[in-house]
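anyone seen this seq b4? input:
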Amino acid sequence: MPFNLSDKSILVTDDSAIMRMFLVMNMRRMLRVNITEAVNGQDALAKLMNGKYDLLLTDMNMPEMGGAELVRAVRNGLKSDIPIVIITTRGEVKDRDLGMSLGANGYLTKPVDVKELIKSILTHLGGYKF
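predicted toks r here
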């Protein structure tokens, strides 16, 4: 039985259509949540300026505007406290530390474990403690 988060919206940002499809498919299977997709940081930033989202999931490596620049823009430009979870292939401690120091609330590495993804989303959206 999926968790009912139908009053919540997630913005999924990744330049890989396959990765977005994987994330969206698993979130729809496990959660009742509204999902919007963005193809890079610039696209995500525009959507954040024009809509209301409860969680931002973002890749780090994207053309035009990567995840680090997006997190900076959200925290410093938009002055938003939206929870941000970085999902990236960059699995080294220095990369995680950079993402978290920029203002991310969570950090997952690809390939993403679906249970960890759902756990992270529930923690940031539903107030669940694991």
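The mean pLDDT is 93. The chain has five helices and five strands. kinda curious what u guys think
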